[in-house]
Amino acid sequence: MSGNVEFHMPVQALMHCHPQGSDMTRAATKASGRVLQIAVLECEQMPPYIVQSHGNFAKIFERWLLAGTHQLNIGKPAHERISVKAYSFNVKEGHYPSSFQGIDAIIISGSVNGVNDDLPWIATLRRFLLGVYHNLPWIKIFGSCFGHQLIAQTLLGDHGVHVKRSNGGWEVGVQEVYHDDSFAQNFPSLSESPMCYQFLHSDEVVAEDNLPPTWSSIGSSSLCQIQGLYQPGRVLTYQQGHPEFDRIIMNDFVRRLVKAGAIDAAVSGTYLAFVERDDTRILAAEVFLGFLTVD
């Protein structure tokens, strides 16, 4: 899709849209360093027992990104250190930020639904994404899993980019991303170690034509050619990966999919072993934070 899109969201204080809005203002004024404020568009609600142990999607993303700030803040004076505050918006229930004052980025989360599902909330989310992308150029956009797919198909659909069932089947557990040079050169830390983190997907983003000149793939894996997309200063996605998830969450989700019959029980042992492999999910957080903090 291309061209300007009218942005219909009302411009009001964020606190009028979500009860945590007043906390957002305090986070920006009390911190001695920079607080990156992120609106997490939750496309799925975590099971209650995950919420109890880990929090909702916004809290899980926040904790992951805060872990990524440790290395970046080493040796910096207090006023130069960065922190992160995430705010939850349940887009399945129609909750969106009504103002972007103080917001640095949006994250579009994963979902049990597919991007091609004909559901009203997905159509609304597409319109919202187009409004942000075309009318709010200072807001950075990140997506993982379902979020990656939605961003790819919504913003690059006119360039032959679409989502389909993966020919390689399920990609599960910790997998390594083989970075494209055009992406890795923007993030020096990738010269020392590749990103590898948890995966859980059976769909993938494919490009029938070359990506537009300002866009690139972040890299590939053994089962997936496009493991994410990058537009400098604007968009970053991680293909169906879940660097925000730890082993506990991923182990639980794999077992639930096996129980539901979505994953063959005969291969579940292999997948669960992949879940337990070492990862560099904190490096993936550092790359995301680098994307957020570089104009």
From TrEMBL:
SUPFAM superfamilies referenced in this protein's UniProt entry, alphabetically: Class I glutamine amidotransferase-like
Glutamine amidotransferase domain location: 99-245
UniProt cross-references to InterPro entries, sorted A to Z: ChyE-like (IPR044992), Class_I_gatase-like (IPR029062), GATASE (IPR017926)
Annotated TM spans: none
Alphabetized PANTHER family for the sequence: GLUTAMINE AMIDOTRANSFERASE DOMAIN-CONTAINING PROTEIN, GLUTAMINE AMIDOTRANSFERASE YLR126C-RELATED
Name of the molecule in the record: Glutamine amidotransferase domain-containing protein
